[in-house]
Amino acid sequence: MFSDSYHGLLTREQFTFHILITTSNHYVSFCLEHLLHSDSRGSIQNSMVTSETQRLIEQDLKMNEFWSRRTYVILTGASKGIGQCLAVEIGKLLVPESTIVLMARDTNGLEKTKEMVNKENSDILVECYSMDFYNSNVTMFEKIVEPIDSTKYELFLLIHNAGSVGNLEHLAADMNDPDEWNKYMLLNLYSVTCLTSAFLSKFNSDTTERCIINMTSLLGIEPYKSVGYYCIGKASREMFFRVLALENPILNVLNYSPGPVLTDMYTHMSLNSKDKELREKLTSKEQQQYIVKVENACQKLVNILAMRKNCSLSDFNYKAI
């Protein structure tokens, strides 16, 4: 197990390096050439450039190796934000005869995502399922995957992105309503375990790679006031996947924290949290320096999947909040 984290502000050199490892080869070449002429610390030795270029080439080869297989993808929360962007970024890389299944409640949002994916790659099948995860069960998910001919695919990928922040008006001492607890956990934990169970039951070959990604948050390990539901939901999901990975050593499991991404959820939390300190922190000028663009968070995940595909359990934090 390993953990990678970015904490605080990136230096100019660190930020440049970050760009280099998360962009296309064309842009990488531009950055290297630009740095040769404009690095503030002086010229870069040719040997360093050669070494970095070689590393980037090796990374690109691994990327091609991972995404060159016929892949079956299930992505929840795919109607907007991170889920929508992930669908597009993954769709660009999928080879013909691959399938990406998009799940969310918002039918219009799903159709928009499907249109965006098809625009990038018309050689893959995109399926949409409008689902209420507050009322889901394993049977619903089994019906979706049951008709799939698993022999057609060489990689199975499940991405748990759907989730909610919970009631921001409640401090921990106010979280005393079992019905509200059940509703929150149905979406944020129970639906996750049910879909995972259906996924693993259907795609159970030991010879075909299976990857499960849990979109998590720093708040799953660090408490913040007035977001108790969210903190507990993320913590419980992380522990579920830790146990799952321990019980299934050949299964690839990744807990991925995209960092403070400017999504509707982030905005909702920053405006409506009952805790004044948290509202001020999320809207402060200093915090804005740490905000991660949706596209960068998604591209980073795509790279991680390709580069670290042989780990049974990984934790990756894009940035600390």
UniProtKB/TrEMBL annotation:
Gene3D superfamilies: NAD(P)-binding Rossmann-like Domain. It comes from the Eukaryota. InterPro entries: Biopterin_syn/organic_redct, NAD(P)-bd_dom_sf, SDR_fam. One of its GO terms (molecular function) is sepiapterin reductase (NADP+) activity. This is Sepiapterin reductase. GO terms for biological process: tetrahydrobiopterin biosynthetic process. It is found in: Cytoplasm. GO terms for cellular component: cytoplasm. SUPFAM superfamilies: NAD(P)-binding Rossmann-fold domains (SSF51735). Keywords: Cytoplasm, NADP, Oxidoreductase.
